[in-house]
Amino acid sequence: VMERKLVKGAAHITGGGLVENVPRVLPKHLTAEIEASSWEVPAVFRWLKKAGAQPKEEMARVFNMGVGMVLIVGEENVRAATEILEGEGERVLEIGKLVERKGDEQGCVIRNWEMWDEKSKES
Description:
Helices cover 33% and strands 21% of the residues. It has five helices and five strands.
């Protein structure tokens, strides 16, 4: 995907989680809207959240919640990038989109993350 110049940005999700790492690769006028229901949060994170009585905001700031790398790809290149990455054995999930940032909105907004609370109750 890099050789074909399909990637506009990449964020390795380490300390700082999704909400701190993704904005680092975005221009200030954009916000990443991430849909929490687009992937299954691994059991270890659900356990940590419950055992540590951690709010979802802190979990999203500290941990990757199961998403180790975020690639930013133009809508017109999603299919090609997905085919290439899956052909190399990678698991690809479309987890969100970029939108114009409104006012003092953060650079990464996680939508429907209340489901992390619901999942924690099941554990």
